[in-house]
Automatic annotation (TrEMBL):
It comes from Desulfonema limicola. The keyword Cell wall biogenesis/degradation applies. This is Endolytic murein transglycosylase. It holds the Pfam family YceG. It is a single-pass membrane protein. The lineage of its organism: Bacteria, Pseudomonadati, Thermodesulfobacteriota, Desulfobacteria, Desulfobacterales. Its main location: membrane. The record marks E219 as: Important for catalytic activity. GO terms for biological process: cell wall organization; peptidoglycan biosynthetic process.
Length: 334
């Protein structure tokens, strides 16, 4: 009987010892990287991929050593049901527990997408495609979908003008809807209630301000001239003069080759501000913050004309006689 009790006692001690050893061994595994030489690998976790497949992929990539222990840690920590799909940049110097936390929090690789000020919706769509975020045609279709545009709360027929220029960071599996939403949401954060009140003071809608800002953006070569160029257009609108802006004409020309002809200027279209009075029906580009501010707060001038000097700046005039003189000096002489 005594020997039986001792056998049971030693068996229990052995089981407890084994459990303690296993526990500390597992903890040591969870906190210790495979090696301390940083060997980065890109790991793709697919939608619906289970922990077993993920742990095997990490093992095959040389990021972890023991897929079984990796799965045990995940289960003990309650992280086995929260694997998020995406592209991850992992390396062998990361402890397994840190790797688990990264893929549970969805800390995927983010890629930069920079939208320059003054880009049109079509140019942005092309940039989105060349940057690997989605199809250009699909982007254009979504940004011109009346239901989608209306849901975003904008007045225009498309989102032209409301895709705010900035640097964004997205994962490669980010949907086009999410990318567009990020841009339009940024626009709304920039166009504050104070700006809305200022638009009301000017007797203009937000859409009209954005349209004017887009023209200012395309006409401006030197940043400091934005408020002055804005004043020219505001003064013309007050006098019911045509805006006569080349960029508005160009916007309506498909596959523009860089040569603005007399025929182009004479063709009547909703965007030809040489033929129509007032603003075109919508923005011709996506303006940045400075151009929006210039549209809202123009300089106090009496200028009605401007002509390029050829160095990105302009010569401004209050009357046609002086303007024609400037044209001869800066344009015809060349």
């Amino acid at each position: 009987m005594r020997y039986f009790v001792l056998s049971i006692f030693f068996a229990v001690i052995l089981i407890i010892s084994s459990g303690i050893y296993f526990f500390f061994n597992l903890k040591n595994y969870s906190d210790k990287p495979l090696d301390y030489n940083k060997t980065e690998k890109t790991i793709h976790i697919l939608q619906g991929q289970g922990l077993g497949a993920v742990s095997q992929s990490l093992t095959d990539a040389g990021i972890i050593t023991d897929p079984f222990k990796f799965k045990l840690i995940a289960r003990f920590k309650g992280l086995d049901k929260q694997i998020k799909a995406g592209e991850y940049l992992l390396d062998s110097s990361m402890p397994p527990l840190e790797i688990l936390k990264i893929i549970n929090k969805g800390k995927v690789v983010l890629y930069r997408l920079t939208i320059p000020e003054g880009y049109s919706m079509e140019q942005i769509a092309e940039l989105v495609e060349t940057s690997g975020f989605g199809d250009q045609k699909a982007f254009m279709q979504l940004a011109a979908d009346p239901v989608f545009v209306s849901a975003k709360g904008f007045e225009g027929k498309t989102l032209e003008g409301y895709l705010f220029p900035d640097t964004y960071y997205f994962s490669k599996n980010t949907s086009l809807e999410s990318i567009i939403t990020a841009m339009t949401s940024y626009f709304k954060s920039v166009f504050t209630s104070k700006w809305e009140e200022r638009a009301d003071e000017l007797g203009m809608s937000i859409h009209q301000i954005v349209t004017l800002a887009s023209i200012i953006e395309k006409e401006t070569g030197a940043a400091h001239e934005r408020p002055v160029i804005s004043s020219v257009f505001h003064n013309r609108l007050k006098k019911n003069m045509r805006l006569q802006s080349d960029p508005t004409v160009i916007y309506n020309i498909k596959d523009f080759d860089g040569n603005l002809t007399k025929k182009n200027l004479q063709k009547i279209t909703p965007y030809n501000t040489y033929k129509i009075k007032g603003l075109p029906p919508g923005p011709i580009a996506n303006p940045g913050k400075k151009s929006l501010e210039a549209a809202l707060w123009p300089a106090d001038t009496k200028y009605l004309y401007f002509v390029s000097k050829g160095d990105k700046t302009h010569e401004f005039s209050t009357n046609l006689k002086d303007h024609n003189k400037a044209v001869r000096k800066y344009q015809l002489s060349r």
